């Protein structure tokens, strides 16, 4: 079954995001034996509704190449600013 995590963060309100709320999705994973059954889609759709109910103006995530088609089908679009990380 998928694991889903999300959080909302408050930032400076803007015209496109009057509440200043952003959603972040992380740690979505499905056991290999349970893939291709719609579980991840159902979990992410529920999480997106949760963000909408809290007034999030956008939702951000990073995706593996295997998961990218799912997120694109849900309306996510690629951004020119990829996530950078430093492991110490």
From TrEMBL:
UniProt entry keywords in alphabetical sequence: Acyltransferase, Transferase
Source superkingdom: Bacteria
Keyword DNA-binding: no
Signal peptide: none
Every N-acetyltransferase domain range: 1-88
PANTHER family: AMINOALKYLPHOSPHONATE N-ACETYLTRANSFERASE-RELATED-RELATED (PTHR43877)
Protein name listed in UniProt: N-acetyltransferase domain-containing protein
Protein source organism: Streptomyces prasinosporus
């Amino acid at each position: 079954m998928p694991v889903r995590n999300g959080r909302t963060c408050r930032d400076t309100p803007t015209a496109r995001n009057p509440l200043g709320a952003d959603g972040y999705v992380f740690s979505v994973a499905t056991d290999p034996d349970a893939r291709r059954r719609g579980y991840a889609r159902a979990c992410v759709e529920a999480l997106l509704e949760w963000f909408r109910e809290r007034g999030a103006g956008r939702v951000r995530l990073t995706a593996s190449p295997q998961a990218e088609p799912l997120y694109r089908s849900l309306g996510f679009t690629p951004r020119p600013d990829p996530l950078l990380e430093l492991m110490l």
